Each structure stands twice: as C-alpha cells, then as structure tokens.
Amino acid sequence: MSKAGDTAKAESEGASASQTSTLTSLKSTISSQILSSNMSKAGATPKTESEGASASQIRTLTSLQSTISSLELINSLRRKRDLMSLLCSYPLDMRVIFDDFISKPYCESKLPLKLEGLLPKEIIRDAENGDRSGSNFIFGDANLDFIPEAILDMAADLAVHQLMETLISICKSKNPKHAKCIRLSTRSDVEKRTVMEKVTAALNDKHHSLDILNSFHGHLTIDATGYPTSEAEKELKQHICQLLQLSTIKYDDILCTLQIEDEMSRSRYLVILVDRDGEEIVDPQKVGLYGTLLTGVLVLITTDSPSSQQAKEGGLKDGLVNLEIRTKEHLLPWVVFCDTAGKEFVYSSDAILTTAVRIVEECRSHLHAILLVAKWLKNHQDVRMWELALHKLQFTNPSHDVINFHGLNSIMINTFLNLIWDGMNKTQQNCLLSCSGIPKIRDGIVDHELMNHWMSSLFVDAGETEKNLRQLVENSIFLQFDGVGGRYIWLPEETYQMLEWIYTLYPLFIEKSNLGLTEPPNTDKWHNAVRIELAGNKISELPESPDCLQLKVLMLHRNADLTKIPSSFFYHMPLLCILNLSYTSVRELPCSLFFLEQLRELYLKGCECFMKLPPEIGNLEKLEKLDLDETQITHLPKEVQKLTNIQSLTLCFYEYHVKKNMPYSCSMIIPSGVLSKLNRLEHLCIGVNPDDARWNKNMQVILPEILGLECLQTLSIYIPQLELLKLIPARIFELDFRFIVGRHMQRIISSIPPATDVKFKQSDCSLKFVKGEGVPDEIKTVLRHSKALFLDRHFTLKSLSEFEMKNLDQLRVCILAECKEMQTCGGGAKDEDDMLPHLLFLSIFHMKNLRSIWEGPTSPHSSFGMLQSLSLQSCPRLVTLFSLDFLGNLSLLKKLIVKDCPKLSTLISHESSKRNAHAFLPKLSKLLLLHLPELSSISNGLQIGPGLKEIAFYDCPKLHSLSRKELVSKELTAIKGETNWWKSLEGRTPNFNLIFSPINEEADLMTQLGICDDDGIDNGPGDSVGKPSQPTGIATCVSNSPTRRGKYRRRRISKTWEVETSYLTEDGYAWRKYGQKSLFNNKYLRHYYRCTHKYDQGCLATKHVQRIGEDPPLYKTVYSGQHTCRRRP
C-alpha cells in the first residue's frame, strides 16, 4: 500500500493546482487540437493561432495528455488498492488469492484472476478502470433508497470493521511508509454521525484499545461539525492545541499551525477527524494535521455526496489519501447476493426480502458463503425455501461442537455442511473428497486435468464427469477463472480444509499396504471407501460381510497368510470393479463373489493353492480382465464362454494326476468352442506345463479358434510342434506375439540370471526356440517378425548367420544359452548384409564351444551398431572378445560383463594391440570382469571407455596393474574388487584409491555389483526395448491411486537421456500427449508426452519423440525424469 501512496504523492507534486483544475475541460479537446496542428509528418510547420494551436500550446497539451494518462493509471491503482483492502477485511481467507498480486509491482493492470469467481464481472471491470461506482451497477444511485435499512446499517458496520482491521495492521507493521491518511466516506451527514459513534465504540472496546490505542502516543477525536462558521478552521486549530496541551497565542494562526505540525511530527497520534456538514469541508493540511513529517495516522470521516465531492476540490486532495473506505462499497455482500439469486426474486415479496436480509446478515459478509446460499436459492419464489435456508444457516452443525475445525468460520461450516453437502449426490461428494488429495487445487488446476483425475480414481465416465464438474461450478462450490492453458478450477482454503476433515471421517481411499498388519483395519471406515489397499500385510482373516456400498477397488494381494475368504464377504459390495487376490493362499472363491455384477477385473496371479476355477465364473458377465497366471488350475470350465466382454485373459495350467498312472481329471485343458466365443478378447496368454501330454492335442483344436479372434492384439502361447506354425497367418505376426516353440521342458533352476529372463519376458514380439535342430523355415518366418530371440539348447547351430541375416534384422534382444555347437555369433557369411543392426541387448551363457563374437572378414559397419549391453558367462573356450576392426562397431555399447571365461586373457586380440590415437567404446559406462583367471590386460594397451564410470574386478589374479593408457576416463567414480588384490596392485594412483570400494566376499557378488536389477540399457522409461504392451484401461488407472498430501510437491528433474531406434514401441508406461511443434528445416513434427499419473501420483516423467530419418526410418526419443508412479499389479 505504501507504493501506491508514494505514487499518488508524486502525482500530486507533479501536477500543479492550475493544471489539475483544467484537466477536465481540456481532456475533451486535446485529441482534436493535436490532430488539427498538422504534426503528423516530421518537419511540418505548426499552423498559426488563428488556424489552430500554437507550438507552446501543443507542448502544454502533450504534457497534459501524459499527465492525464498517469492520473488514469493512478486512479486504477487506487481503486484496486481500496477494493483489495475491503475484501481482506471480510471473513473469506483471501491470502491465497492475493499472494501473487502482492508480490507484483504496482504497474500491474489486472486484479487477481481468482476474483472472477467471487465478484460480478462489472465490479472487477470498474475497479480495473478506476471507476468507483462499481456497487451501483445493479441498483444505481436512484435505487439506493430501496436497499433495506438493515443492510445499510450492516454496510456501516463493515466499513468500521475495515477501519479497525487497517489500524491494527498498521500498528503491527514495522514499515515506516504505512498508510498515514485514511478517508472513510459515508453516504450522508446522518450516516456520518452514525459511523462516528460506531468508530468511538469500537475504539473503546477493550480488545481494540489494547491493539490500537496503546500503539500511539495519543488519541484525538475531533468533531468539526461543531464549527459551522467561516472562522471554523481558526477555532478548530485552537481546539486542537488545547487537546494537545500546546501553548497558544490568540489570533496567531500561523504559529498555531506550526505547533500542531511540530507535535504531529514528533509524536505518533491517532487522529479521528469528523468533517463538517454540507459543502463546508475541512482541509487537514490547513489545520496542521497532515504533513510530510506526519508519523501517526489521520482518519477523516466525511461524506461522498455530489455536493461534497465538488467541495473536496478545496479540501484534502485524493493524491494524499492512502486508503479510502466507503460505506456504499460495503453493500458488496448484498449486491453479490442479489446478483446471484436474482434481484427480481429477492424483491418479489416482502417476506422473501425480509428473509434475504436476514440471510445476508447471518452470512456476516462471507462472500463464498453468500455465493453458495444465493446459488442454492436461485430462481426460487417459494418463501419456504428461503426460510429453510435461513434455518440451516442458524443451525449449528453437531460436528462443529465435537471437532475443532482449526479456526474455520462457523457460518461457512454451517453453509457447506448443512446446506450444500447434504444436497449433493454421492458421486459429487466423492469427486469433492478426492480433491482433498490435490493440494494444488487451492491455487487452481486446469479443468480437464481435474476430470482425468476423477475418471481414473473414481471410475466415473467422461460424460458424467463433465456433468458433475459443470454442476459444481454452477453452484459455486468450485470457483473458476480463465488462465494460461484454459479454464482453471480452484477451491477456497476453507472448503479444502473442511473436505480434508470429512475425508478423515469418511475416507475414499484406505491405504494400509506393507504395514505388517495381522488383521484388517476397523470396518467402520469402509462404508464410504471407494478404494481399499491392504496389500503386502500378514492378514489371515477377513470380516464376514463388511458394509462397502461405495467400494470399487479392493487390493488384498501379497497377503500370504490369507487362506480363506468368508462366504458372505462380498455381499455388500455391489459396485466392486477390481479385486486383486494375487499371491495369497486362497484355495477357492466364495459364493458371494459371483454376485458382483460390476466386477471388471479379477487378479489371482501367484495363488499356488488355487486349483479349480468354478463354473460360477460365468456369472461375471462384465468381467474384462482375468489373471490366473501361476495358479494350479488344471483346466478351464466351459462357462468361461459366457464372459463375452473379456478383453484380457491370462491362464496357467498345472499337470495334475489323482494318482500315479491314473488318467487326467479332465481330458481337455481348454474345452473346444470356449475361446471362439470371446470375440472381444485383445490379450491372451496361455501357460502350460510342457510335460502335460494333453496340450499337444488340445493345441490342435484351439489354435484355429485363437487365430479367428479379430480383436486380438497380444498373444502369448506355447507351440509344442513346428508344424503348427504353418497354420499361423501373416496377420498374427503384426500383433505383439510371444511364442515358445520346441520341446520345451520345465526347469527347477534356470540357466540364465533372473534379470536377463525378465528382460526377455518384457520384450514384445518374442520367440523362444528350445531344443531345436537345424534352421526350419517356420522358425525363419517367425524370426523375420521378432524383436526378441531366446535360443535355448540348440543342438546343431554354429553361428547365428545360419538363420540368414535378413531374418534377424528386427531383433532388439538376443539371448543365447547352452548351444553347445555354436562357435561365433556372426561372421563368415557369404553375403555382406549387416548383421543385427538394431540389436540393443545381447547375453550369452554356457556356450562351451564359443570362441568369438565375430569371426572372419571385417564386419559391415552397421553390424551390432546399436548394441548397448553385452554380457558373456561360462564360455570356457573364449580367448579374446573383440578384434580391432570389430571394436569400431560398438560405439554405443554402455555396459559390458564378462564372467567365468577361464581362457580369456584380454578383451581385445593380441594381434590388434597397436597404438591408436583415439579411444574405443566411447559410450561405455560400466565394465565388470569376474572370475577370469587368465586375464592379464584389459584392452591390450588400447584406450577404451572415455566415459567409463564404474569398473569391477573379482577373481582376476593375473591382472597386476590398471594402466592409465587403457583407462582414460575422467568420469570414473567407482572401482570395486577384493581387498587383497587391490593391495597387491601395482601403480595405484591416489585418485584410484579414493574411489575404490572393497567387495564383501561373504555377501552375494551379483547384488553388490548391481547386476540383478540393471540390464545395461537405460533405466526407467528410456528402455529402448520396452515392456510388453499391457492391457490398458481401468486396471491401469486403478492400480495407482492418488496419494495423500505431500505427494504433489514439485520435484526437480535431474536426469535426461535419449535413445535412437528405427521403430516406435511401447515402453511399459502410460503416456499422455500434451503437445507438438514443428522444427526448423525438419518436415516431421516433434511430439511431447507426460506420464498419465502426473496429477494423481505426482509423477513428473516426460518424453518427446522426433523422427530424424526417413529411409530407413529413425526415431529419437528424449526422456526426462524417472517414473515415481507405482507399477501395475
């Protein structure tokens, strides 16, 4: 406020009195005179006085025009300052609204955007224009007589209250530039005297006396209405001197003024000056009460009638007034109420008008409460509705007596709880309660983001979501404003706090996962819950029949002690959509489950005690997803064919005999005709025991049914016979397929590390070829469309080249295990085609005859050109890894692991050890060399890994030194190895000693080196290989609920990385496109995406995708930030 005062003061000093007096008369002629002066062209000669304005007049008029522009800006600033001061004196917490505005310079031309939802547009417009008639836009001066007397009296009370609040604020402030002059304008002389009495009473109140009067040296109340004569100012100064106990010389008017000014500058006084009646106005400057050295506060109580406005030109100038309080402007609550409820209805009858007055009085100037009540009564002419609203406002809600609302306004509590909350439907209540987990909604959130949050967390469809939001905005429960990016929705602080309190009593989301609970929480709070998470606990028993009429999601997975569900458990869950019982010990499903008509997703993954799917499963006709992976069921009941809405089906069958040599309990694993009825099926995964003899025959029956599913997008299946591949049409290879082909055999212990197995299973379009012989044409056909290959125990293959390079072109992941005849991955081919040009991940295990990665003549430059991760394990005949020529192909390699290769002496062949000026493997960041007893040199003198960050050695006894000629990286941050080996190492540098950390030989080696969880390719969303195309929809949304407060705090995104691929693939996360733009000299658009869970979980991961090549196609994806959202169940 001090800035505005300083600006106003400067204005008063900049414009002389004569200039100010002529502004009004000259303003209308300035434009025409300047135009007639013919000054539009440079160098033009001004016209003579007879023809227009002289040059001096032109300069004067230009100066005055600039002054007028400044005055208009200052008037606008004053008006906004006064309006904001008025609003801050009302009960609604305006701090959130004004925080941004206060921090901005006073040259801002717009009021806070959030006022758009609270005040009529006309008032905001007039305030920005500097117009002080905003309160008249409905009534007009002629209609003020129709405002009820009680409302006028309330306006006077509010004006006095604003004055008291301002004085208290000044007393508490340490700012020396506080408001020094406050003008309180009343409508008439009668109201002026009434206001004076109210001010006197307020100052005599003990609370105000302590807060205000004790902060001043003295308090003067001067009533100028008792000095009506022409000598009033002289008599008034004599009276002031007496009050100040100053010695005076009679008739020495100048000395008296100086004495008053001197006292006012030395001591801090609060002066209440009541102006004279009529047109005779007191000028505080002339009686010594206002000057540049004034240290106290002057409050001038006057009138703003048309006659007194003209007289003010001889009194205190507007520029010297730091704050103006007007009783007429405190009609704002009545104006807002009438404008919202409808003036014609308010004034339609005396009974309604009387009740309306009592309602506004009861709301005590709380603008949001007034808006809510007015919207509730809008267009109602029945007086009983108005009386009911008044009764609800006066009724103290019992909860207010029991629970402390942390100082929330009681009228807002009664308005919201008694009048609004009970009148909303359950869906609207849940929508509001879900907002208690979005703290940023107090500042404003774009409307479509709020609707997305409701749809994902509450399972409300788009049409109903839009309808509910529209109704909540129309009823002013939500307020809105137009901002950058669209329409913003916000909740006032008081409403937000009440919703938080209601949420504690009736939570929508009960999140008690991973807490070690042995029993579920009290069921009293389950009644209103939409989502209950009890995963990862030790719960063994569930309540019999909890009342969960609103429940839509129930997560009970990973409760291993849960063996039985009460038969009536689900009877009172009519809206349940998602049920997760994965990794529990349930043996059977209760009968009440099959009455869940709304159930859409059922998860039983990992329930190893679950052995039979009952026929009643066919009752769940709305089921869209069924996951029976890792269960012990032996067959599928034919009633599954009734699940015509199912979109995702994951099955796992167990080979079960009653007794040894006894026949199967069911001859068919999947009955004929079941799958063909599931015509909406998009994702099908069937896992079987490879030793189950039923599958060979069953597969011949069901394969045509599977191939006839028109909506199929993902297919994962075991194909025991190569001949069956001939039945698969070409269109199936356009899907995301996962085929296991060959004489598959179930293994107790896998020959490959778990992380590698996960990498393969997460890859789309994959082929696992087991115990193969030769290179069948059927396998070549599948390979041609595959992005991942797992070659397991092939009997005859000596090189991948035998599959023909053109068939390997699409591979991104390749795993080779126990192929006893394989000698090399590539090389020796007759043609010169590139080999594996798009391969990103290569792992080789237990290859007893492997001698090299590449063999023969120089490889084409693009062979292995995109490889990022390479690991080799248990290759007893491997002597060297790379030739110098082949090394140049691995410019993108980031991670290299070599383990248990007893003959390997160096990574690069000896004959290629000549010195080279540049470093190889420029992208290498992690190097692990383990159990290599013959390793004597890392790279045989060649510089490698200029970006190497981590290196580890274990059981490499012949490696006696780390050569700085080989390890040239300046980014090395960690060296790991055995303590004894490190102590005996030659030529250790001080820098190496600082970053060395010993390996604990008693702990798991692979875990210490971070191999189990790291695949070498970019972590997080930057994984180029991606993850399987999971079924999206309701499961994706529900598995991640909005976390409670604090989750939405802004995080700093610190990591970015980029991946170049020749294809676009899913990366296992849900993305939402939010924009695109064209780039200079590039005909392809860049597309921008953010994580779908940005607002419900605060995940800030983003990416943008740009096509950078045409033939062949090449795409560049840049990721930013790690995903913090929870993964799907």
TrEMBL record:
GO cellular component assignments: nucleus
Keyword Transcription recorded: yes
Gene Ontology terms for molecular function: DNA-binding transcription factor activity; sequence-specific DNA binding
UniProt xrefs under PROSITE patterns: WRKY
Keyword vocabulary terms for this entry: DNA-binding, Nucleus, Plant defense, Repeat, Transcription, Transcription regulation
Start and end residues of each WRKY domain: 1060-1123
Comp. bias intervals (Basic and acidic residues): 1-12
SUPFAM superfamilies xref list: L domain-like (SSF52058), P-loop containing nucleoside triphosphate hydrolases (SSF52540), WRKY DNA-binding domain (SSF118290)
Domain of life: Eukaryota
Gene3D superfamilies: Ribonuclease Inhibitor, WRKY domain
Entry keyword Repeat: yes
Cell compartment(s), UniProt: Nucleus
Any one Pfam family match given in the protein's UniProt record, by short name: LRR_RPS2
Region annotation (Disordered) ranges: 1-22, 37-56
InterPro entries membership: At4g27190-like_LRR, LRR_dom_sf, LRR_R13L4/SHOC2-like, P-loop_NTPase, Plant_NBS-LRR, WRKY_dom, WRKY_dom_sf
Protein name as catalogued: Disease resistance protein RPS2 isoform X5
Gene name of the record: LOC107468800
